[in-house]
Amino acid sequence: MTRGADHDFDAIVIGSGISGGWAAKELTEQGLKVLLLERGRSITPADYIGEHKPAWQFPFRQLGDRKRYERDYPIQSTCYAFGEPTEQFWIKDAEHPYGQDPARPFSWIRGNHLGGKSLMWGRCTPRWGPINFEENKRDGHGIDWPIRYDDIRPWYDHVEEFIGVSGQTEYDSPTAPVGRFQPGMLMNACETFVADRIREKFPGRHLTIAPSAILTKELHGRLPCHYCGPCERGCSTGSYFSSISSTLPAARATGNLTVVTDSVVVGLDYDPKSRKVAGVRTLDQNTRAGKRYTARIVFLNASTLGTTQILLNSTSETFPNGLGNRSGVLGHYLMDHLYLNVSGVIPGMLDKYTIGNRPAGVWMPRNHNIGEQNAPFLRGFSYEGGASRANWTGVSVSGHGAALKQRLREYGPWTFSFYPFLECLPYRDNRLTLDPVRKDKLGLPILNTRFEWGKNERAIAEFMFNDATAMLKAAGATDIVPPPEELPAGGLGIHEMGTARMGRDPATSFLNAHNQSHEVANLFVTDGACMTSTAAQNPSLTYMALTARAANYAVQQMKSDAL
Amino acid sequence: MKRVGESLMPGRHSLDRRDFLQLATMFGLSLTVPSLAAKAPAAPLTADELILIGEVSELIIPTTDTGGALAAGVPEFVKMMLSDWFSDAERKNFISGMHEFSAGASKKYGKKFGELSASQKDQYFGELLAMAEAAQTSTSGTGAGAPRTPFVVLMKRLTIFGYYTSELGATIELHQQIASEQYVPAAVIKPGDRADSGILSAMYPFSAS
Predict the structure, then answer these.
(1) Cβ contact A393:A55 at 8 Å
(2) 3-state DSSP call for residue B19?
(3) Residues of B in contact with A405 (CB under 8 A)
(4) What tens digit of pLDDT does each residue of B136-195 get?
(5) Residue A87 DSSP code
(6) What 3-state DSSP class applies to A126?
(7) Partner residues linked to A271 by β-bridges
(8) How far is CA A425 from CA A128, A330, A536, B46, in A?
(9) Residue A35, φ and ψ in degrees, nearest 5
(10) Distance between CA A328 and CA A321 in Å, rounded?
C-alpha cells in the first residue's frame, strides 16, 4: 500500500493514551506510515521519578505541597491517584481551564503527556459481556449498540494476549467473561475469608481477584510484577500495561511510526468533495508554531472530552456545529461511572498479614437484573475491592508515649473495602459545548461541561450501600463506613464516556459499527467518546478492543480502495 | 531553625526575605510591602518554642529500644509544616494553642514547661491530651469554621506523621520493604514482627484544622 504523493502520512493518530497507542500499534504493524500526535510532553521510564521512593525523600513526605495544589491542581488533586509521588503526570488546572456548570459540575481529570492516562490508570480490565451490548435496545435507554459481544470477542482475545492480563479463569461471569489471562494474583487471607462468607450467604456471588493489566509472567521483554504497589508512579519493569511499556515500543519497532509531542490539535479540515478529513491543524504548545499534516485516514484518540473538543472546534460550511455532526448528538450523552466506597473492619485473622503490595484488587461482577428484572433500578453495578491490615496510617490510638509507640508497632485489624462502579444511563442534557467567548492560552475555545447523576444512578447508589453492607456483615464486619451522602461530582470515576457515540442510525449517532464517522469516511473515533453505554465494568479494555477492530477494518478498506 | 543572628554572620551578603521579615518583626516594623506580605513566611518558631515542640514530640513518641521523635527530626518536620503547609488560620490556631499550653504549665506548676520534671511534663501533657481525646473536639475534615483542634492533638498528629515517615520511623521502628518480588497472601506474624510503614493512599488525608 503506498500513500499518494498528496499525503504526508498514511494515517494520523491524535492522542497517545490507551486507545491512541493501540491505533498506532495496529496501523503501523499493518504497514501504514503513521504520525502520532501528542499534545503533551514526551515521557520515558526515566520520568518515573516517584517510583520506589520512600516517604522521607519527598519534601512533604507524601502529603504534597498543599498550597501549590490548591492553586495549580484544585481539580486534579481530587483524583485518588494524585499525590506527591505522581503529580508530574497531571495537568495544571490553572493552565488548562474548562467550564463547569456550578450546580452540575464535572471533574475533568487529565494527563497530557506521551502515554496519557495509561500511565496512571487503575489497570482493572474486565471484559464486557453479551448483556452489556444488548440492554440499551432492551430497556430503551440510549440507542442500540451497533455491535454485539461476538463482534468484539476476538479483539478482546487479541488485546489481552498482547497487553498481558492476569486474572482468574474459574468463574465465567455473564458480565465479565473469562479471557486470555495470565495466572491471576492471589487473594489475601481476609479477602478469601470474605469471599467464602459471601458465597455461603449469597449463592451465586463470586468475589475473585480482578482481571488486571499487570503481568504475572514475563511478556515481550516486560517483567512480571515486583509488588511495589503504587503503579501510578510509573513502572521501570513495564509490568503494568501503558502505552510507554507496551504499544508504543511495538509501533516504533515497525519503523513506521513518527511521534510528534507538544503538538496540540486545533481542528480537522474537511473536504466536501471527497467527504473526508483533508488535514490536521496543530499548534506547538511551547512555541505556538502552527503546522498542518495530511493523511489518508485519521484516528481521533484524544480522550473523551479532548476528542469532542477537537470535533466541535472543526467547523466548516458543511458542518457548522462540529465535524461530522449532522445528527446533532456530538457533545451529548456524557457518561461516567458513579464510583463509591463502602468499608468495614473484619474481625480475626490477626496472626496473618501480607508480604508485598499487590496492585490488583478483588472484583465481583454485576449480580442484579441479569436474565430477570430483580432489583428496583435499571442495569446494575460491579464491585472492586480489597482487604488490608491497618498500620499507623489506619488506626486511631488514644494516649501517648511508649504504649502508643508499641501499639503502632503492631498491625491494626483487617479492613475490607468495596469500591463499586455503578452504571450510568445516557442523558442528552449531560453534555459538552464550546464556550463562545473564553479561550485558553493557545487561543482555543475552552470546553464547557454540564453533568448530573439521574434518578437511576441514585437508586442504584442507595441499593448498593445496603447490598455491600449485607455482604460485609456476612463476614462479621463492624465499623461499616458508608459512602458520603452527597454523591461525588461526575468525572471522578475517570471513566468518562460518550459524546460521539456509536450507533446504527446516522440520525441519532456519530459513529458506525466500525467507529467510523457516519459522515466523514476517513475519520475514526475509538476512545471513550465512542461509547453508547457504560455498563458497570471498567471501560479501557473495551476501548483497546474497539480500537484494534476499527484499525484493522480501516486498513482493509484502504486495501480495497474503499478508503 | 535558622536564627536571625546567623543571617548577619560573615559570609552572608544579603538578607533573604525571611530574614528581613524576622528582623522586621523583631524591631516591630509593620509589614506593608504587599509583595513581601503576600509571601510572608509562617510565623517562625522561636528557639524556645522549637525546644518545646521537641519535648512534646518526644513525649508522644519517646525513645525506647528505638529512637524517638527527636532522633527522627520531628521538630524540623513540624516547623516545615507550620511554615509551608498549614494555612494562616491553622498556623494561628497552632501558635495560640502552643502559647496557651505554655501558659497553662506556668499557671499550674509555677514553672515554665521546660523546667518541669520529666514526670510533670508527661502528666501535664497526658492530662490535656486525654481531655481533648475524650471531648473529641477535633473538627478535622469538616472544613467548617475556624480551625480549633487543640495544640496537643495537632502535635500528636504531626509527631506521628513526621515520625513514621522518617527513615528511622519507617525502617527501624517499623518495617519497610519497597518491592518484595513475591506476594505472600497469608504470611504468619511472628513475635517481634513490625507492621509495614507504607502509606497506602497516594495522598494521605492529613488535617491541620
Answers:
(1) no
(2) helix
(3) 61-62, 64, 68, 173
(4) 744 444 556 788 999 999 999 999 999 999 999 999 999 999 999 999 999 999 999 999
(5) G
(6) coil
(7) A276
(8) 16, 17, 11, 59
(9) -100, 120
(10) 8
Residues composing chain A: 563
CA distance A111 to chain B (A): 16
SS3 label, residue A549: helix
Rounded to 5 degrees, what angle do the CA atoms A545, A363, A146 make?
30
Q: Where are the domains of chain A?
A: 178-211+338-422+452-488
Q: Which helix (H) or strand (E) holds A335?
A: none
Measured distance CA(A360)–CA(A182) in Å, rounded: 13
Task: Name the helix (H) or strand (E) containing A389.
Answer: strand A381-389
Q: Which of B140, B199, B201, B207 to substitute to test the interface with A, most A CBs within 10 Å? A: B199
Query: Nearest 5°: phi and psi at A523?
Result: -110, 125
Q: Does B147 touch chain A (CB under 8 A)?
A: no
HSE-up of A203 (CA within 13 Å, CB side)?
A: 0
C-alpha A241/C-alpha A121 separation (Å) is 9
Say what the ipTM of the complex is. Answer: 0.94
Copy the grid coordinates of residue A281. Answer: 491543524
Q: Minimal Cα–Cα distance from B174 to chain A, Å?
A: 6
Residue A3 C-alpha cell reads as 500513500
pLDDT per residue as tens digits for the range A39-74: 999 999 999 999 999 999 999 999 999 999 999 999
Residue with cell 485516514: A297
Give the other-Cβ count within 10 Å of A133's Cβ.
Answer: 22
